[in-house]
Amino acid sequence: MNFDIGSFLEKEISKKRDELKEVEKKPIENLNESNSSEQESVTLDPVINVSNGPVHIKNSKLENALPMANPVSERLETRPKRIEAIMNKENHMDMTIDPERIGETNQDILTHVSMQCNLYLHTLLKEWGANSEKYHPELLNETKRNLFPLFVKLRKCSLESDLLISLATIVYHLQQATVDTNEINSAIESYMKLSLGNVAWPIGVTQIGIHERSAHSKIRGQVQRANVMIDEVTRLWITSIKRLISFHDWFLKHQSPILKKK
Q1: Which three-class secondary structure state does DSSP give residue 46?
Q2: Is the whole model's pTM more than 0.90, yes or no?
Q3: Which portions of this protein are annotated as coiled-coil regions (predicted)?
């Protein structure tokens, strides 16, 4: 029997090569299987689902962030229109205060009276600015600064009810002074009550609701801390109201019998 060792070795070498190739293929197959599993998991839990409806974000961080971002962006986008709407409303608002509405508890009426006070005080400042060369120009800018915190509260309708009642009463008497200059004295009297912590009501207003009873009791003698002593900011805007009363008195006597509405 002839044994060809050369052929035998060649077959063994070929066999080993085939086995080595099989071993080398296994890691690649395992890797492919792993990648396939990951792809399947991604497919089973997609980040964005666009079928049959709006886009749904699966990412929890985005879900938490988007509800916070949308209202802010919407508010910024609508801000110019909101400002324009407010300005249009103010331009068409009648500043003349109805004394029967002072002290009302209805929120819409409170907001309206608060805005009327805001607009009228701004009108007085504009008149002062137009006549600043003739009337205490050194006090005008300081008065504007001191009144700014009050204007913010009036626009937001956040001024304390007792203070708003007294302020609206002062504004009412200032408006009536264009017809009867003696109303200036009533405005000064109301200012004194405001400063001392009492509530100033327009003369002739007799109906006082439940909301106003505590305020009314102050007029009847209840001890009350002076408003000018509450804090420095309050003291400054209250004293600035007195400056506007003095200017309005001067204006009516020296410039015009009627304060033109701006």
Answers
A1: coil
A2: no
A3: none
- Considering only CA atoms, which of 236, 244, 241 is closest in space to residue 129? 244
Instruction: Answer yes or no: are the C-beta atoms of 182 and 262 closer than 8 Å.
Output: no
Ramachandran area for residue 139 (φ above 0: left; ψ -120 to 50: alpha; else beta): alpha
User: What pLDDT digit, counting tens, does each position of 46-63 carry?
Assistant: 444 444 555 554 555 545
CA distances from 226 to 137, 191, 220, 247 (A): 29, 12, 15, 24
Topology at the third CATH level for domain 93-254: RNA Binding Protein, Prp18; Chain A (1.20.940)
User: How confident is the prediction for the chain on average, in pLDDT?
Assistant: 77
Helix (H) or strand (E) segment spanning residue 57: strand 56-57
The band of 226, judged by pLDDT with boundaries at 50, 70 and 90, is: confident
| Cα–Cα distance, 195 to 58 (Å, whole number) | 60
32 token code pair: 């492919």
Q: Which sequence spans correspond to the domains of the chain?
A: 93-254
Six-digit token string for 142: 């300081």
Tokens of 98: 């109805």
Nearest Cα neighbor of 171 from 243, 125, 117 is 117
200 conformational bin, left if phi > 0, alpha if psi -120 to 50, beta if neither: beta
- pLDDT tens digits, 103-126: 888 999 999 999 999 999 999 999
Interatomic CA distance for residues 192 and 201, integer angstroms: 12
Q: Which two tokens stand for residue 6?
A: 């050369």
For residues 181-200, average pLDDT: 93
